[in-house]
Amino acid sequence: MTVLLTGACGFAGRHFTAAARAAGLDLLTSSADGEGADLACDILDPASVAGAVAEARPDAIVNMAGQASVAASWREPKHTFDLNAVGALNL
């Protein structure tokens, strides 16, 4: 089973990566710019999402990309909404 993980470089994503690899999953990691991950997948950009999905051809997608900080969400509510809602819609 091939799994595409978005948000692989975040706090939860790093833990999921370790657990998934320990379980023997075929995991492809992604980050918005591709740095520190297998591929780039900016969930705010539908073309980037389509490209990453086409390249990975995953059986499943685990989305851990988004804004998790409550404090940051109050400072940047539109950006938080875009990441958490529009990003999920793009996926």
How does this model look, in words?
The protein is of the alpha/beta class. It is 47% helix and 19% strand. The chain has four helices and four strands. Strands 3-2-1-4 form a four-stranded parallel sheet, with helices on both faces. β1, α1 and β2 form a beta-alpha-beta unit. The longest helix is centred in the C-terminal third of the chain and has 14 residues, at 77-90.
Short summary of the structure?
Strands 3-2-1-4 form a 4-stranded parallel sheet, with helices on both faces.
Content of β-strand: 15-25%
Estimate the mean pLDDT confidence: 96
Low-confidence runs? none
Total strands = 4
Give the overall form.
globular
Protein structure class: alpha/beta
SSE diagram, text form:
Elements: E1 2-6, H1 11-22, E2 26-31, E3 39-40, H2 46-56, E4 60-63, H3 70-75, H4 77-90
Parallel strand pairs: 1-2, 1-4, 2-3
Descriptors for this entry?
91 residues, alpha/beta, 4 helices, globular
